[in-house]
Amino acid sequence: MTTPAIEGSRRRLSGRRPEMATKLVDAVSQVIAMTGYDGLTVRAVAKAAGVSAASAYNYFASKEHLLAEVYWRRLSQLPPVAIGAKAGAGERMREAVLPIVTSLSGEPELAAGVTTAMLAHDPDVVAVRDQVGQLMAQRLHDALAPIVPSEALTPLVFMLTGGMLNAGMGYLEYAQVAEEMAQFADSMAWKKKR
Predict the structure, then answer these.
(1) 43 vs 100: CA distance, rounded Å
(2) In 10 A of CB 149, how many CB atoms?
(3) What CATH number did the domain enclosing 134 receive?
(4) Are residues 54 and 16 in the same domain?
(5) What percentage of the chain's residues is helix, strand, coil (to nearest 5)?
(6) CA 93, 91, 151 angle in degrees (round to 5)?
(7) Cβ contact 68:128 at 8 Å
(8) For residue 34, what are the domain limits?
(9) How does pLDDT run along the chain (194 residues), one tens digit per residue?
(10) Which residues does 82 contact at the CB level (< 8 Å), separation at least 6?
């Protein structure tokens, strides 16, 4: 059985050994903490992972691709959204969003690198970014579907990604994204139940 964390990579990695990609992904946090985004290279990550640079480039086309994969794997390992039936809109939003926004909050260099990487036009990054967007949309749907009309979910994904971008640029704390979205949800409560 393929785990969700590796499923995305396997599709793009065409049957290559997933443990090699995992070694590379696992080494990123250590390397970027020392080098920052500007100093991060696939070659440096390969060295830290004990993998040849040539092998690393067979898995990841660029440092942006590698960072996007790190983020995807972190998000895909989050526990499912679990919400009580009587939870309000804000509580539901917070439950869906807080794990997403705090997945990188303790690692400022990694968070800044992922923010930059996710904006790349590299086709491999675009594929990962699409998976991240689907995961975010699914978490919001799982949390809010009972009380939010389906047409409101896409704008909420835009709000979440915009909040993440602002946090990644240092304009607000990651936890603030969840809190602001929870307050918004409470204020809408979905258009006061129409």
Answers:
(1) 29
(2) 11
(3) 1.10.357
(4) yes
(5) 75, 0, 25
(6) 35
(7) yes
(8) 4-63
(9) 334 444 444 335 555 678 899 999 999 999 999 999 999 999 999 999 999 999 999 999 999 999 999 999 999 999 999 888 889 999 999 999 999 999 988 899 999 999 999 999 999 999 999 999 999 999 999 999 888 888 888 899 999 999 999 998 889 999 999 999 999 999 886 565 54
(10) 95
Per the listing, tokens 């985004």 go with 37
At 15 the pLDDT is 53
pTM of the predicted structure, to 2 decimals: 0.86
Is residue 178 located within the same domain as residue 89?
Answer: yes
Is the separation of the CB atoms in 15 and 7 below 8 Å? no
Do 37 and 126 share a structural domain? no
**How many CA atoms lie less than 13 Å away from 160 in the CB half-sphere?**
28
Tokens of residue 78, six digits:
């989050």
Could you tell me how many residues make up the chain? 194
Amino acid identity of residue 55, one-letter, is: S
Q: For 87, phi and psi rounded to 5 degrees?
A: -65, 140
